[in-house]
Amino acid sequence: MKLPLSPLNPNMSSGSGSLMWFRKGLRIHDNPALEYAARGSTCVYPLFVIDPHYMEPDPNAFSPGSTRAGINRIRFLLDSLADLDSSLKKLGSRLLVLKGEPGEVLIRCLNEWDVKKLCFEYDTDPYYQALDNKVKNHASAAGIEVFSPVSHTLFNPADIIEKNGGRPPLTYQSFLKLAGEPSWACSPLSVELSSIPPVGNVGRCEILQVPTLKELGYVEEDQDEFTPFRGGESEALRRLRETLSDK
Questions:
Q1: What DSSP line would sit under 220-243, residue for residue?
Q2: CA distances (Å), origin 219, targets 58, 62, 64, 209
Q3: What is the DSSP letter of 98?
Q4: 117 strand-pairing partners
Q5: Has residue 96 got a pLDDT over 60?
Q6: CA distances from 59 to 68, 101, 112, 211, 214 (A)
Q7: Are strands 41-50 and 16-21 parallel, antiparallel or unpaired?
Q8: pLDDT score of 223 more than 60
Q9: What angle do CA 7, 12, 14 make, to 5 degrees?
Q10: Residue limits of the Photolyase/cryptochrome alpha/beta domain (predicted)?
Q11: Mean pLDDT across 169-183
Q12: pLDDT band at residue 202 under the 50/70/90 scheme
């Protein structure tokens, strides 16, 4: 599906660079933030930040993994990042991986790179809400356009809460009454981008490859411990086609 995009800012400089900050939406298809980043740009910086807040190994965790994520979830994420990198390379780009506190990393990149647009998918997580405000404030002060569409969820949670008098609905039935038809329901379908502008000059930023579990500091467990489910958009689309073909 293709979500409606806001019109281009007439004050936006032509032929400028864009930074596409990947978080949960690790996909090429149906990604309005990526589509907007690519539109009218001479270069695009596709960035993912390895956040110690979620991915730092914790030997005291209940099960192997970090404080907030088990080893299978982290493996799934790394599968997804590797698949995204592969998809971007087919379009003449690549995934830029950096490590550190995301707010600090993003601000450093915005200062270092020639960026006129910052694009990322809206996230309802309180941790990311605070982080996003920090980054958006810096970008706005630097004259950088920010585009952050709601596309991880089918509806904008803030709209649903507003329709319900400032409170989240407590039942699915009440949610359905409030939600109605999603705004994108009558929009034309967007399959995928046919190309992405190349990556620009990354300056002094030390770009990493998608790391392995071992490179992140995790000890490889017995294979029997792992989930059979692989991460990545390609695997997700394969499973979708397989399911839809089963009449």
A1: P--GGGS-SPPPSHHHHHHHHHHH
A2: 11, 15, 9, 19
A3: E
A4: 18, 145
A5: yes
A6: 12, 21, 36, 19, 14
A7: parallel
A8: no
A9: 105
A10: 16-154
A11: 88
A12: very high
Radius of gyration of the chain measured on its C-alpha atoms: 19
Q: In whole angstroms, what is the distance from residue 37 CA to residue 40 CA?
A: 8
| Distance from chain centroid for Cα 135 | 15
DSSP state for residue 203 in the 8-state scheme: T
Residue 144 tokens, joined: 């950088």
What does the longest C-alpha to C-alpha distance in the chain come to? 56
> Which amino acid is it at 44?
V
Q: Highest mean pLDDT: which of 11-20, 24-33, 61-70, 79-88?
A: 79-88
For the ranges 30-44, 47-61, 139-153, which has the lowest average pLDDT?
47-61
Nearest to 6 by CA among 136, 180, 106, 145: 145
* Crossing angle of the two packed helices 102-112 and 126-141, in degrees rounded to 10: 20
Written as six digits, the tokens of 56 are 């730092």
CA angle 154, 70, 235 (to 5 degrees): 50
Residue with tokens 């990311």: 128
* Token reading at 1: 């599906």
